[in-house]
Design goal:
This protein is an alpha/beta fold and 324 residues long. 35% of the residues lie in helices and 14% in strands. The protein is globular, with a radius of gyration of 18 Å.
Length: 324
């Protein structure tokens, strides 16, 4: 169907075509027996500093050096999560550059279709604006769920680019203000730097959000902080969405991002944490955002890390599924 927004025919030149790790390609109208559906959202019209995240889905798919055989047994567990979860890839959505509302509506429509089919969307971004569209759709299908957010920034701004309602600095605030996700269901891990301002931090606290700074992680340990955060957000909720901004990682090790902030997590810490989370909570969706290949330097290290973060989340989900 030409121009349907689901990437089935029309597609932008910057969109990806190969499937993630060679998993079977699918269409949104025929997801088969898949448990997890990978979908790309090549979108960066919400970026405030350095653009380029529209190229993120393509880079995350292309960077794997192990080939495209659809087979990825985890060395530590021996589990091939791609097979256990019957992962498929529907490619990148057809998002019209610069058309904010139309693009967000197309993303929400696709995520809702996937969720309504009983599948779990794994979304490759794209800047962080897309989390608004992702979680708006999932809230309509699933109702109450926890949002576990890894980021250097809170993304709770009240219109951060020329006063516009949507940007990569606003999605968490918009989800709360519009009633899609309750404030007390939000936990944020890895915040640091010089934004947002005290007034916004106070607003976050009033909503019941819990924010854990890098200083908390340094003083108390990442494991302790994550356990406390997840216990708070999932109290009374049996579902969770994972949103991972790649800038939560130390930019010396993940330079390809739009708003780098020194002093972040190590890649190994984040990989282990995401796998553990996906093993212990009921993940209804996840997104990996803010990978900007034009700033990745030599070796595609940021895209490679994002690729492995997807695999770690999938492996944790597969461990959980096999244990039940």
């Amino acid at each position: 169907m030409k121009g349907d927004g689901f990437g089935t025919s029309e597609i932008a030149a910057f969109a990806a075509r190969a499937s993630f790790s060679g998993v079977p390609a699918a269409t949104i109208d025929d997801l088969g027996e898949a448990r997890v559906v990978i979908v790309g959202a090549p979108f960066d019209w919400g970026a405030s500093h350095r653009p380029g995240a529209r190229f993120g889905p393509k880079a995350i798919r292309d960077v794997g050096y192990l080939g495209f055989d659809g087979y990825r047994p985890h060395l530590a567990t021996g589990i091939d999560s791609l097979s256990v979860l019957k992962v498929v890839d529907i490619g990148d959505l057809n998002l019209p550059p610069g058309y904010m509302d139309e693009s967000l509506d197309r993303i929400s429509a696709a995520i809702a279709t996937i969720a309504q089919a009983g599948k779990i969307p794994m979304i490759l971004g794209g800047d962080h604006t897309i989390t608004y569209a992702n979680c708006r759709a999932l809230a309509a299908v699933h109702g109450d769920f926890a949002l576990i957010h890894f980021d250097a920034h809170a993304d709770t701004g009240a219109g951060t680019i020329g006063g516009m309602p949507h940007s990569h600095g606003t999605p968490m605030r918009k989800l709360i203000e519009e009633g899609h996700v309750a404030g007390r269901r939000f936990v944020q891990i890895g915040l640091r730097g010089y934004w947002p301002e005290p007034e916004t931090v106070a607003w976050m606290a009033e909503q019941g959000m819990r924010s854990y700074l890098m200083t908390d992680i340094v003083e108390r340990g990442l494991g302790t902080v994550v356990d406390e955060a997840v216990a708070y957000a999932t109290d009374g909720a049996d579902k969770a969405f994972l949103s991972v901004d790649i800038d939560v990682v130390e930019p010396a090790m993940a330079p390809g991002t739009g708003t780098p902030e020194p002093g972040g997590l190590l890649p190994r810490e984040l990989m282990d944490t995401l796998r553990r989370l996906a093993r212990h909570v009921n993940v209804i969706g996840a997104d990996i955002v803010e990978v900007s290949p034009p700033y990745d330097g030599v070796g595609d290290v940021t895209a490679l890390l994002a690729n492995r973060l997807v695999l770690e989340i999938l492996n944790g989900m597969a461990e959980r599924r096999l244990a039940t």
